[in-house]
Amino acid sequence: MTDFNPLKEQESIVSVTDRVVGVSIGAAVSSVHFLGDKAAFVGAEEKVTLVDQGGTMSPVDVAFGGILCATSDGKRVVMGSDDGKVLVLDRDSTVSTFATDAKRRWIDNVALHPDGAVAWSAGKTAFVQAPKGEVKSFDVPTTVGGLAFAPKGMRLGIAHYNGVTLWFPNMAGSAEVLEWQGSHLGVTFSPDNKFIVTAMHEPALHGWRLADGKHMRMTGYPARVRSIAWTAGGRHGSDGPSRRWRGDPGSCQQGRAGDGTGLERPWLTAGLCRCGRGCRIAGGIAPSLRA
Q: Which residues of 217-234 are buried (b: 16+ CB within 10 A; e: fewer)?
């Protein structure tokens, strides 16, 4: 015991706050993405602010109005604006217009496929364009609430009122519809391509097993779920109220919201899963972010 030195042990402990760089964007931030080694803070209007590891900010003008949605694959940030444009911000800060809606409707949702295809929606219509292909479109019964590409194959999940439509842009014929009454907003596929889950207008999630269409109903949340993320293998997911749940119908068939992490306050609205040797969940607490 004579060699025990608590001060030496404390010196080896690194606090998370020691590695956090605070920045003041000066405007509302709608989403955050990594663009190369920089953080891209997407504003609610006009600008994206790029921040390097030292905290140096570089504002980039990307739109003349509101930025309604954004997504990123680490190589580019794709955004939808209220003037009917799909905009792209590259790593070198170059801004380009990927597509323009013929009727100048709001671009409500955007999604990226691993092969570079881009999907977006305006009103009741979803669009897809491959890197070297033509624009293809599909109309659903009501306004599109969310878009997500399946991790395998060219299949797009389109959330809307009363369910989700699974559309294969490269195949002729009717699309598959997974029905459940209510307004479906955000949508996501599990990484193993076995499940699809939507966030609903009420405080609930709803999912389907793609092999047989069996339902997964998850209710009882203290607030509307704003985001969903999966662990790498797709076995678990996390949602806005930071509850973790297993990705199979048996764990959710009684309408449970999953096993809580203890962070169930209504203002915890964003969730993120990362899986290395263990499952880690991060949440966003309005009006600030925590990682």
A: bbeebeebbbbbbbbeeb
Strand partners, 121: 109, 126
What CATH class is the domain 25-99?
Answer: mainly beta
Q: What confidence tier does 7 reach under pLDDT thresholds 50, 70, 90?
A: low
Average pLDDT of the chain is 81
Residue 251 has pLDDT above 50, yes or no: no
Query: What would the mean pLDDT of 36-65 be, rounded to a whole number?
Result: 92
Question: Which pLDDT score, from 0 to 100, does residue 40 have?
Answer: 94
Domain spans, the chain: 25-99
Three-class HEC string of the chain:
CCCCCHHHHHHCCCCHHHHCCCCCCCCCEEEEEEECCEEEEEECEEEEEEECCCCCEEEEEEEEEEEEEEEECCCEEEEEECCCEEEEEECCCCEEEEEECCCCCCCCEEEECCCCCEEEEECCEEEEECCCCCEEEEECCCCCCEEEECCCCCCEEEEEEEEEEEECCCCCCCCEEEEEEEEEEEEEECCCCCEEEEEECCCCEEEEECCCCCEEEECCCCCCCCCEEECCCCCEEEECCCEEEECCHHHHCCECCCEECCCCCCCEEEEEEEECCCEEEEEEECCEECC
In tens, the pLDDT along 127-139 reads: 999 998 899 999 9
